[in-house]
Amino acid sequence: MPPVAAVLAAVAAALETVGLGVRLFDVRGALGHLLSMDLPGSLPRLFVASVLAAAAVVAALGAWLRPGRRVWWSAVAASAVGLAAAKAAGDLHVRLVHLFGTGEQAWRGAVVLGIVTAAGLVFLWRLSGNDRRDRRRIVTLLAGYAVAAVGLSLVSTYARITAGPVSAAFATFVEESGEALTAAGLLVAVLIGVLPRLVLPAGDVLRRRDDHLEAAPLAA
């Protein structure tokens, strides 16, 4: 695991664990809001949004450095920007899930949003053409983020309805942790594809043979 991945994962785990404690011990006020797992403006939510925004910036840099894959990296940057904006905006994905039904009918919105997300991932996969070097990692992590944001959000909703506050707290913890870890993984995957020398030592198995050639524009 690249060191930057370990650091991001540790920060994500720490923030979400503290947020779980805040929920279980019913910490209120400004401190409770700041450390909450899922409230708008809280540290865990801002961390995930910032990581996604950083992935978008690096992907945009990749579009500039690698003209041969400009469309692919531009699409990755646009996807990361959209996810970062949705995370920073608050519970946008939850509102979308509940758009077609609330409570026990929330599964309808999850199905619709899941179909739209799957179509977007297929389009992104096809957009990469025959270049398989980065798309597997990036598309897989985007799919993982979608599962956490949509699928696990539905689980959290049912936990709140049927199982009480403690189960809902743990369900939210799993959902938010899944989003945080997949967002961190996405940033690392984009860094490996665009700026591998910053995150991987020479000779690492994740380094491509032509990384030194593709890095020539950056060196110039």
TrEMBL record:
Q: Which UniProt keywords apply?
A: Membrane, Transmembrane, Transmembrane helix
Report the superkingdom from the record.
Bacteria
TM region(s), chain numbering: 43-64, 71-89, 109-127, 139-161, 181-200
Protein name from the UniProt record: Uncharacterized protein
> What's the source species for this entry?
Petropleomorpha daqingensis
